[in-house]
Design goal:
heterodimer, A: about 240 residues, alpha+beta, Rieske Iron-sulfur Protein, 2 domains, four-stranded mixed β-sheet, B: about 450 residues, alpha/beta, FAD/NAD(P)-binding domain, five-stranded parallel β-sheet, four-stranded parallel β-sheet, about 35% helix, globular
Chain lengths: ~240, ~450
């Protein structure tokens, strides 16, 4: 039997069980699909726990809020800093420069970053939030108005593209791009800039994420509205350090 | 058949005879079996055949950097070397079948974390970080020919990083005879070299029915300075939790602990006053294993069970490779403390707890330092110089309450600074204490380890 007939025989066999094969094929495809395709990011409107749009002007000063984007399980810190945060260039994990577009909303003061530490992937979960923004001077980091990851004391500047201020992290947290609708005062998450670590994140915490968000839902992209709330309301323990 | 029977009888008879005519009979039995073996023809000594063949590593022609030792230092060195230069042929040589972490192990001792957190696969580490793991024990290194001899064959190297860790030095506890030292180590293991010692300590704890459990904190720069205190708290917590009428007796060679002790002292005072007794300034001069007695300059201490932590020294393989500092009583590596290079050998480096420098011997320090050593090596390949090591603030957690888990923390930075007074580089270590114990720090303590394991074994950021 030649290789060709072999193949034909196989095709025939497939024809008989077409539906099953298609299903199997789809399963294989989704299992090997890239963890994240940046080229088509979802557009999500931020809403509060009651389902109403989050008004940018109502986001309290020094807010340490959380929502999930671009996947159902990937946490993002939503922060309102005191002063306008202008656009600036920062470097990604490969040392390549990219432009962080700066804050949006009132006074350009609302910013958002993936709450997945760029050092060793600690993150904000329902049980414990290791990354938090605090106005007051952190005991551990010695800095105020910064995002600190309490696991290894990496410190990021939210007003400057989350560049690293201290600790073992070597590159900024991935920035979540925001859009502010001046007419309605609504906020939208529209994409990611910088070093996204979702592939690594899923690899590291798949077991926990499956439990918390559902077997496959954890890597489903968000659609429509996403709920934003204070970290203290989301997490049992928003760690201070 | 006949021989088997004979040995079986030998033992039984020996015990029987021992009760009748004690010593003489036992000695006779020993001599008898020795004589039977001695009658055989002596074997001709031959080098093992492993030496004559090449170890099976998928060499691909690039510059090879071999790393001996897969602990916190070696694992991170291998990973960082590949991160710096993908074209390097990095081979990590480790004799253990799987990794077992010493950091976090005190938490596992009292079931605060599962064993899964501590044990990891070298296959995963090598696969995820794109280097080769050679599962072999290194027997010798020929630095002139740049050949490493292992029980799995030989391999050559262009650069070599030796990260073998520590060994125990029982002579400084007055146990000079190697046989006695081995017996002491087997009976009351220190459990500061991970693996079986820790498994034994956990079993001892679970079998402990009451009495005095002795821990010791040796003199010198021992591995993980606050760990004996953390262990005292965890064991005390276990006793308290299980209603065991026991006490942890912590014998510290120093009058005062070698770190800011407020948070730990407070926890002992608040939680374990009836369970932990610390005696400072204890100079141990001998151990009587049979009588379960520690001899000190202050007198004798009788215990029920113990984990006796002796002073540490550089791993003995350093001497074997000819790179130990024989003038140093600790026999640590003879390296230039700035470049980590073995003196007189541009191609060999030593990292991790075998280093002679005075900074802390702990996983997080070895981990950070490893990145520096990897950069020293790749910079050297490119003919560039690298500024000396200077670490950011690195977190070190110490669990002080077993249930609920609460920890205190230290932020430690170390490295070389320029001294304006002398115009030379001077070594500096700074520690900031976070003495207020909390559940938050307890959680951070666990996450600290999980993050590090992620980094070393699964996700290379």
């Amino acid at each position: 039997m030649t290789r060709e007939t072999d193949r034909r025989g196989f095709m025939k066999l497939c024809g008989k069980t077409a539906v099953a094969a298609a299903v199997a094929g789809a399963a294989v495809r989704s299992a090997t699909a890239p963890a994240f395709a940046l080229d088509n990011p979802p557009r999500a409107r931020l809403v509060t726990a009651d389902g109403k749009p989050l008004m940018a002007s109502r986001l309290p000063m020094h807010a340490n809020w959380i929502f999930h984007y671009p996947y159902e399980s990937t946490p993002v810190l939503l922060i309102r800093v005191e002063d306008p945060a202008p656009a600036m260039d920062v470097e990604d994990r490969d040392g390549k420069a990219y432009t962080w577009p700066g804050g949006v909303g009132p006074g350009g003061s609302i910013v958002a970053y993936a709450a997945i530490c760029a050092h060793a992937l600690s993150y904000d979960s329902k049980e414990t939030s290791f990354l938090n923004y605090r106005r007051k001077r952190n005991e551990m980091s010695g800095h105020g108005r910064v995002i600190t990851c309490c696991a290894h004391a990496s410190v990021y500047d939210p007003a400057a593209g989350a560049r690293v201020l201290a600790g073992p992290a070597k590159f900024p947290l991935a920035a979540v791009l925001l859009e502010h609708d001046e007419k309605t005062d609504e906020l939208f998450a529209t994409g990611i800039a910088g070093s996204e670590l979702y592939k690594e994140f899923f690899k590291a915490y798949r077991k926990d994420l499956r439990k918390e968000f559902g077997r496959s839902k954890y890597r489903k992209r968000v659609e429509g509205d996403v709920t934003a709330m204070p970290v203290s309301g989301y997490s049992e323990d928003a760690i201070e350090c | 058949m006949a021989r088997k029977k004979k040995t079986g009888l030998n033992r039984r008879e020996a015990i029987k005879a021992a009760s009748a005519a004690a010593l003489g009979a036992a000695a006779g039995a020993g001599a008898g079996s020795g004589g039977a073996l001695g009658a055989e023809k002596p074997l001709k000594v031959r080098p093992p055949s492993a030496f004559s063949r090449q170890a099976e590593v998928p060499g691909f022609g690039g510059t090879r950097v071999a790393v001996i030792g897969g602990g916190w230092s070696g694992l991170e060195t291998a990973r960082q070397l590949k991160k710096n230069r993908r074209d390097l042929d990095v081979v990590l040589i480790e004799k253990r079948a799987s990794f077992f972490s010493c950091p976090l192990s005190n938490l596992w001792l009292v079931d605060r974390i599962p064993l899964d957190d501590l044990t990891h696969s070298y296959i995963d580490a090598a696969h995820n970080n794109d280097y080769t793991w050679l599962h072999a024990a290194v027997v010798d290194v020929d630095r002139h020919k740049r050949v490493i001899y292992t029980d799995q064959g030989w391999l050559t190297y262009d650069f070599l990083v030796v990260a073998p860790g520590i060994d125990y030095d029982y002579t400084r506890y007055g146990v000079a005879d190697p046989g006695d030292a081995a017996r002491l180590r087997a009976t009351y293991p220190a459990a500061f070299m991970a693996g079986s010692e820790l498994l034994t300590l956990k079993r001892k704890l679970e079998e402990f029915d009451g009495g005095v459990f002795v821990l010791t904190a040796p003199p010198g720069n021992y591995r993980c300075l606050p760990a004996p205190y953390e262990r005292a708290c965890m064991i005390a917590g276990y006793m308290k939790d299980n209603d065991i009428k026991g006490r942890v007796l912590l014998l510290d060679s120093r009058e005062h602990p070698p770190f800011h002790p407020d948070g730990i002292n407070e926890a002992i005072r608040d939680l374990y006053r009836r369970y932990v007794v610390r005696i400072g300034g204890v100079n141990i001069t001998g151990v009587d294993i049979g009588k379960r007695r520690i001899e000190t300059e202050m007198g004798e201490i009788v215990f029920t069970d113990a984990a006796i932590y002796p002073p540490v020294r550089g791993s003995r393989v350093l001497e074997r490779f000819g790179i130990a500092d024989m003038k140093d009583p600790g026999r640590f590596a003879d390296i230039d403390p700035i470049s980590y290079r073995v003196r007189g050998d541009e191609r060999v480096f030593v990292g991790g707890d075998a280093r002679p420098m005075p900074f802390i011997k702990a996983g997080m320090a070895a981990n950070y330092e490893a990145g520096h050593i990897a950069r020293v090596i790749t910079s050297q390949m490119e003919g560039k110089d690298l500024s000396p090591l200077s670490s950011p603030g690195l977190m070190c957690y110490v669990a002080v309450n077993a249930k609920p888990l609460q920890s205190v923390a230290f932020k430690i930075s170390f490295g070389w600074v320029y001294d304006r007074g002398t115009g030379e580089k001077r070594f500096m270590q700074k520690a900031q204490a976070f003495p207020k114990r909390s559940r938050s720090l307890g959680k951070a303590n666990i996450q600290w380890g999980r993050g590090m394991f992620q980094e070393m074994f699964y996700n290379s950021l």
